[in-house]
């Protein structure tokens, strides 16, 4: 019997990305929305990505059976002392659009030259097993912030984030390419060996 993995995110872009990355793993991967938890939401009020990711995973674990995967991602801009960081999703305020966040970022970097617009994305993924054991991993993608949005394949800060190794924004590259180099892909790749081990184990709930 295949084990079920439930993603704590309701973000369709993020869910698709994670499903694509895990598609060759021997799990049935579903999002919380697909199993009737569209209204489930967790206030991300912790001080670190690690704490937020684990909070999202453990809160959903209280409601469902299966392996829970939750992540938290931040964009850290050197010229802004690491902002927006843990507040990336709500940089311009609560319930704002991606465009609102991007516009504020561009405004705050208005007079910063290209060579000083270095930044990195960091994703932390938390996995909580059926027996409440958990483990975590992170992935980092280095780059810099452009002066204008480019590309239409992506979400969040992707149109502004120029990948160090390609010279293109995350929105200018294909899903397949992104899933090989992205911060989220790296975090999940760092978990792959552990997840493969989990796939072969018979772990019962407490």
TrEMBL record:
InterPro entries tied to this protein: dITP/XTP_pyrophosphatase, ITPase-like_fam, RdgB/HAM1
Molecular function GO terms recorded: ITP diphosphatase activity
Stretches that traverse the bilayer: none
Obligatory cofactor(s): Mg(2+)
Binding, substrate: 9-14, 73, 155-158, 178, 183-184
Co-factor note (free text): Binds 1 Mg(2+) ion per subunit.
Residues bound to Mg(2+): 72
Active site: 72
Enzyme Commission number(s) from the entry: 3.6.1.66
Known catalytic reactions: dITP + H2O = dIMP + diphosphate + H(+); XTP + H2O = XMP + diphosphate + H(+); ITP + H2O = IMP + diphosphate + H(+)
A Pfam family it matches: Ham1p_like
The entry's keywords: Hydrolase, Magnesium, Metal-binding, Nucleotide metabolism, Nucleotide-binding
Assembly and interaction partners: Homodimer.
Family in the record: Belongs to the HAM1 NTPase family.
Cited function: Pyrophosphatase that catalyzes the hydrolysis of nucleoside triphosphates to their monophosphate derivatives, with a high preference for the non-canonical purine nucleotides XTP (xanthosine triphosphate), dITP (deoxyinosine triphosphate) and ITP. Seems to function as a house-cleaning enzyme that removes non-canonical purine nucleotides from the nucleotide pool, thus preventing their incorporation into DNA/RNA and avoiding chromosomal lesions.
Protein name listed in UniProt: dITP/XTP pyrophosphatase
């Amino acid at each position: 019997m295949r084990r079920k993995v439930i993603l704590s995110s309701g973000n369709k872009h993020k869910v698709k990305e994670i499903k694509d990355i895990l598609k060759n793993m021997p799990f049935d991967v579903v999002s919380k929305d697909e199993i009737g938890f569209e209204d489930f939401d967790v206030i991300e009020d912790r001080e670190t990505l690690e704490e937020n990711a684990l909070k999202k995973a453990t809160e959903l674990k209280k409601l469902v059976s299966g392996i829970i995967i939750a992540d938290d991602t931040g964009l850290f801009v050197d010229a802004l002392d690491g902002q927006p960081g843990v507040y990336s999703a709500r940089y311009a305020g609560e319930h704002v659009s991606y465009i609102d966040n991007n516009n504020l970022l561009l405004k705050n970097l208005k007079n910063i030259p290209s060579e000083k617009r270095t930044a990195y994305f960091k994703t932390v993924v938390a996995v909580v097993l059926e027996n409440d054991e958990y483990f975590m991993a992170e992935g980092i993608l280095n780059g810099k912030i452009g002066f204008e949005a480019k590309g239409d394949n992506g979400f969040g800060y992707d149109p502004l984030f120029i990948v160090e190794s390609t010279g293109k924004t995350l929105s200018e590259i294909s899903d397949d390419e992104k899933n090989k180099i992205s911060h989220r892909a790296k975090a999940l790749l760092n978990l792959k060996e552990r997840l493969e081990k989990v796939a072969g184990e018979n772990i019962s709930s407490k």
